[in-house]
Design brief:
Immunoglobulin-like; mainly beta; 39% strand; Jelly Rolls; 2 domains
Length: 258
Amino acid sequence: MKKFLSLILILFLSLPVPAATFQGGVSEQGTGSSNRIIDRHTGEGIGGADVSLPKQNYHTKTDGQGFFELDTQINGPSIMSVQKENYKPFTMTINEKNMNAPIVVGIEKSNASGVAVDTNMYHLGDNNFSDLSANAGEFRMQSIGPFYTRRFTLKNLNFAKPVYLVIGSIIGIDTAMARSMGQNSIPNAFASPPEIYFNGNKISEIQLNGDGQRIKLPPNLIRKNQVNEITIKTGRNIMQTAYIDYDDIEFMNIIIEN
């Protein structure tokens, strides 16, 4: 992926070492000389947070002041995960460019208005993809198939307010729009977008790779204080008619929140 619509890296030219603070896919100003995890509201460093690049099988923890090192190399966009007890799980897509500058991530505490449905990483598709596909160089997981389904109970949400499904990070999408934005280099083919279903009803399509993608759940479909179901279906190569060629994508961190 060459561009990220949901992440904007703010550089302060007057400072010798620029940094950006990333919060749920939105960046705010931040400065520093090292990678750090901070509390979104207090700005204090968070010690003992788990920081990982799942596809590289790389794991580390922040020190007592929230600082950490990424002592590994990536060859293209990769999903970084941050988890800490009593805080909302967080993911963001990083690449060689923003690894060269200090990364400061602001995370916020968990509350009753959110449900962490799944914090694992998944690969959808058929393990058959071009080297020019979006993020192909970073695919290391085996596919679980063309779709993902998870059942969960929605409790303690404020159903008088809008409820959103949030996908922390998603990569590998090869739609025509993704190609037009430079997110893949396939010249003669493109895929239909991944589809999102809630309780058996299609509610959205995802056209672009990125972080913090929010999808509003239709209120009439929400089963309050009962079991609900989300399904994510990957797209298909529209140019291939001889057989079904599924688009290979990866995503991580699914949250339901107000």
